[in-house]
Specification:
The protein is an alpha/beta fold. Helix content is about 40%, strand content about 25%. It has an 8-stranded mixed β-sheet, with helices on both faces.
Length: about 230
């Protein structure tokens, strides 16, 4: 699908998270039962072509999506110089909690089951935020993430969690294996063969989107969830 028609399926929203307002793109297909909140990290943004592709696949599967920038414009400018805020997991998680509360109040999403899709450091933030809102967050997917950075929070995660890693992303595989061992919820590690960290190889990102869509459909839709 071309970029113009892709964006036409979304609306620009201002998401209140604590004391800040974060810009986001919200897409709610007709009949949606779940919404996936995207948590990027490590210098990315809601305009990331990888996350946007996955979001489009999820909407085609009937799931709503919300892509937000977890940092304000001013914070992004600081982070470009210091590369510090992207690793402030507590700050990113607090922003996700705020966005989750916004989804629970927003008229077009308050009836939807919530899932998190986290990439890089955003995956750790998603796990921490899910512990803060255990009744609201029903599923988590991590793409090339750093779930290990969630640390001591991992055993307290209740949401079923899927960790997706590229087969050639050796250091991140080890980090995900370590995090998987600490999770006490329903969990799975999926390794995409011959893929590197950004899943740029032919078919790799498509496989990520397929795995994520299956996981979220299982836990966010009434046809699958208990």
């Amino acid at each position: 699908m071309d970029r113009i028609s892709e964006y036409m399926q979304e609306s620009l929203v201002s998401v209140t998270a604590g004391s800040v307002a974060l810009e986001g793109n919200l897409g709610v297909p007709q009949g949606a039962e779940g919404v996936v909140l995207f948590a990027h990290g490590s210098g990315s943004s809601r305009h990331s072509p990888r996350n946007r592709y996955v979001a489009q696949v999820l909407r085609e599967a009937g799931l709503a999506t919300l892509l937000i920038d977890l940092l304000t414009v001013e914070e992004e400018a600081i982070d470009l110089r210091t590369r510090h805020l992207r690793f402030d997991i507590d700050l990113l998680a607090a922003r996700l909690v705020g966005a989750t509360d916004w989804l629970l109040k927003n008229p077009s999403t308050r009836h939807l089951r919530i899932g998190y899709f986290g990439a890089s450091t955003g995956a750790a933030a998603a796990l921490v935020a899910a512990v803060e809102r255990p009744e609201a967050v029903r599923a988590i997917v991590s793409r090339g993430g750093r779930p290990d950075l969630a640390g001591s929070v991992l055993p307290r995660v209740q949401a079923p969690t899927l960790l997706i890693v590229g087969g050639y992303d050796y250091p991140v595989i080890e980090m995900n294996q370590s995090a998987l061992a600490q999770l006490r919820t329903e969990k799975q590690l999926a390794i995409v063969p011959r893929a590197t960290h950004l899943f740029e190889e032919p078919g790799a990102l498509e496989e990520v989107a397929r795995l994520a869509s299956q996981w979220f459909e299982q836990y966010l839709t009434s046809a699958q969830s208990i």
